[in-house]
Amino acid sequence: MKHNLGVKEETKNKRMMLFSGSSAPELSEKIADDLDIELGKVSRTHFKNGEIYVKFDDSVRGADVFIIQTCSEPVNEHIMELLIMIDALKRASAAVINAVIPHYGYARQDKKSEGREPITAKLLADLLSVAGIDRAILVDLHTASIQGFFDVPVDHVTAIPILSKYFKDKDIEDGVVVSPDVGGVKRASIFAKRLHFPLAIMDKRRPAPNVAEVENIVGDVDGKEVIIFDDMIDTGGTLINSIDMLRRHGAKKVYVGVTHPIFSGDVIERMQASGVDEVVVLDTIPIKKNYDPNIIKVLSIASLLAKTIKKVYYCKSVSELFKGENLV
Fold first, then answer.
1. Angle, vertex CA 156, rays to CA 8 and CA 9, nearest 5
2. Which long-range contacts (CB under 8 A, 24 or more apart) does 125-133 make?
3. Lowest mean pLDDT: which of 10-14, 87-91, 164-168, 318-322?
4. Coil, helix or strand for 32?
5. Among 2, 119, 266, 316, which residue's Cβ finds the most Cβ atoms within 10 Å?
6. pLDDT tens-digit readout, 213-237
7. Is 297 a catalytic site residue?
């Protein structure tokens, strides 16, 4: 029978409860297994007009509650479900409400690039705060500054330890880490230091949303085994162009390491036909389409999130898990 984490004397009056939204049930089960607790029971249905109904079947009064919900398709539906779950927990007298969001939606709109644009990353943070969260646990944000949009504490988790270990185990001898754009240089630099590889940078322009043009490479990739490192793959436009340019500049092998597999449209088919040697992603978003497991490898972030949840629950330092690498 699963127990409550072997709670110590100083926390014996605390009670952890873990619930899953409908977006990531498999990841939630893995996290619950790592924590050695049962997932709480939630009833969900829809009214005839599409409105969401949620009811927690277990008492949450006085509990430290962790809700796991990722912003996968349909993104707006899953965000609304999360807000409703938070409201239900608040009204049911949960002591602490922690939102664990493996992929934070609307993160790419974190500033105004032109007039009359929204800042949706801030809007979502406001919605979560007003709904009633006490803390957010987020994974590899598009930009670290999004943490400042919240009026509650944020613990930022990074997949760098998982991805770097995977590529280190491949024993790549003459490798280069490539940042797909200038904005990702700091993140890619930390990854490169983990592997003791040099860093190269793609010169990219975005003439419109979801449209990217790769113009040049800063750094030597000729004859090298290259790892493109980024936070997400959506339509794959940048990635496909980058792979093609790296091949034309003499890259011996091209790998990709990415946290969030958004995978919109036919990106999987295009990636598999691109000549890439391997695309390694995390399960922050469930992949619901067929893919070639010889090309696309899915690693799990469940254990790392379980460790983070334990740290939060026992009021321990989350930064210790990442040695400062989660501050980008």
1. 5
2. 125/149, 125/150, 125/151, 127/79, 127/83, 128/82, 128/83, 128/86, 128/99, 131/82, 131/83, 131/86, 131/87, 131/90, 132/86, 132/87, 132/89, 132/90, 132/97, 133/86, 133/97, 133/98, 133/99
3. 10-14
4. helix
5. 119
6. 667 899 999 999 999 999 999 999 8
7. no
| Residue limits of CATH 3.40.50.2020 in the chain | 9-158+303-327, 160-300
Strand, helix or coil at 100? strand
For residue 136, what pLDDT is reported? 98
Residue 277 tokens, joined: 């040697």
- For residue 242, the Cα-to-chain-centroid distance in whole angstroms is 22
User: What pLDDT score does 237 carry?
Assistant: 87
Question: What is the pTM for the complete model shown?
Answer: 0.92
pLDDT at site 181:
86
The whole-angstrom distance between residue 178's C-alpha and the CA centroid of its chain comes to 20
Show the DSSP H helices in 51-159 as ranges: 75-91, 120-131
What would the two tokens of residue 72 be?
């996968």
What's the whole-number mean pLDDT along residues 39-55? 97
In the DSSP assignment, the letter for residue 20 is: E
- Please name the fold of domain 160-300: Rossmann fold (3.40.50)
Q: Which single residue is written with the structure tokens 């479900």? A: 81
d(CA 241, CA 215): 9
Pick the CATH number of 9-158+303-327 from 3.40.50.2020, 3.30.70.920, 3.40.50.300, 2.40.10.120: 3.40.50.2020
- Indicate the pLDDT class of residue 9, thresholds 50, 70 and 90: very low
Handedness of CA 239, 283, 209, 325 (dihedral sign): negative
